[in-house]
Amino acid sequence: MFLGRFEHSVDSKGRVAVPARFRDRLSGELIVTRGNDRCLYLFTQASWEPLAAKLNALPTGDADARNLRRAVFSAAEPVEIDKQGRVVLPDHLRQYAGITGNVAIIGLGDYIEIWDQESWQTLDSNIEQNVDVISSHLAGQY
Amino acid sequence: MFLGRFEHSVDSKGRVAVPARFRDRLSGELIVTRGNDRCLYLFTQASWEPLAAKLNALPTGDADARNLRRAVFSAAEPVEIDKQGRVVLPDHLRQYAGITGNVAIIGLGDYIEIWDQESWQTLDSNIEQNVDVISSHLAGQY
DNA sequence: GAAAAAGTGGCGAAAAGTGGGGAAAAGTGG
DNA sequence: CCACTTTTCCCCACTTTTCGCCACTTTTTC
After folding, report:
1. Is A20's CB less than 7 Å from nucleic acid strand C?
2. What is the spatial distance between Cα A133 and Cα A117, in angstroms, rounded to a whole number?
3. Is B86 strand, coil or helix?
4. Among A17, A46, A88, B44, which is least packed, fewest CB within 10 Å?
5. CA distance A10 to A93
6. B54: how many CB neighbours lie within 10 A of its CB?
7. B103 vs B119: CA distance, rounded Å
8. Residues B77, B33: contact at Cβ < 8 Å?
9. Dihedral sign for Cα atoms in the order B118, B123, B125, B126
């Protein structure tokens, strides 16, 4: 299970070190794509495929279906961890997430989120002050 | 699986470089044809045939069916990747998609879309802002 | 406090993308 | 049917980007 938070730098080539603790579970090909709230999602092959299969099954005749497929697939990029334990984040994804200097890397159980460090800080302090309120909105669902 | 987005140029002979990442899966004869929303679809033999079969199965008695068949089949062109990894986009297809200078090449899982760079940019920012709306229209389908 | 591991930066080789020239093929007109 | 024009396509060369590798710094662990 992916847990915890890390702050790493992004170098001039868009490379980010993956937390060492996560690496054994992230061998082989991974998928990075746009996530909600302007962060990036990092999937393993196993967690990506069911999503991709559903999108492929959508009818081509439907405009919403086409655009949803475009949204997800066009933003997705396969990445691999290099010998130093880093992944390259493509330009367009860094732009989407507003990533310039530092990033926050967040373990979320089955998947990983990558945030611009500042955006994360803002959200995190917000969450911190409102955990009780947030969870009460979901009362009964968990 | 074809994933990601690329921006390439079209030279004076109508040639476009196919993203290197896609090439191993694109050996042999490919099919380019008109796609929805003024883009071009690029199919492998494998992904073309199910589509062709669906079109052929449409009832000849229906005028829309006849014209859709005409639209797709008459516009379709077989192309091959040359030694430099490029394909030639025929004039009439470039005109259809409004392709002048640069193109965006989009992986969509089983097939590839080729857009005029500007048209894609417009659609993409539109999609980006409306992903939530779009996906809610399809609630329950994916 | 030393050794190991994690993170960071940068250089050089290799690959990807682009442009153009020339031969072959296709099309056109006499 | 031949000669000429035009188009297509194959190949070479150049530029830019990417990626693997090495080395250094910082942090952690024993």
Report:
1. yes
2. 25
3. strand
4. A46
5. 13
6. 11
7. 9
8. yes
9. positive
CB pair distance less than 8 Å for B138 and A31: no
| Backbone dihedral angles phi then psi of residue A15, each to the nearest 5 degrees | -90, 140
| Residues B5, A74: C-beta atoms closer than 8 Å | yes
Nearest to A71 among B36, B127, B141 (CB): B127
Q: What is the pLDDT of residues B89-140, one digit of tens each?
A: 999 999 999 998 899 999 999 999 999 999 999 999 999 998 888 888 777 6
For residue B52, the distance in angstroms to the closest alpha carbon of chain A comes to 13
Q: pLDDT digits over A25-61, tens only? A: 998 899 999 998 999 999 999 889 999 999 999 998 8
Instruction: Calculate Rg over the CA atoms of chain A.
Output: 16
Residues B67 and B59 sit within 8 Å (Cβ to Cβ):
no
Nucleotide nearest to A15 (CA to C1'): C8
Q: Retrieve residue A82's tokens.
A: 């290099």
Protein-to-nucleotide distance from the CA of B6 to the C1' of C16, whole angstroms: 12
- Token output for B137: 């229209």
- pLDDT beyond 90 at B79: yes
Q: What DSSP string describes chain A?
A: -B--EEEEEB-TT-EEEPPGGGGGGG-SEEEEEE-GGG-EEEEEHHHHHHHHHHHHTS-TT-HHHHHHHHHHHHH-EEEE--TTSEEE--HHHHHHHT-SSEEEEEE-BSSEEEEEHHHHHHHHHHHHHHHHHHHHHTTTT-
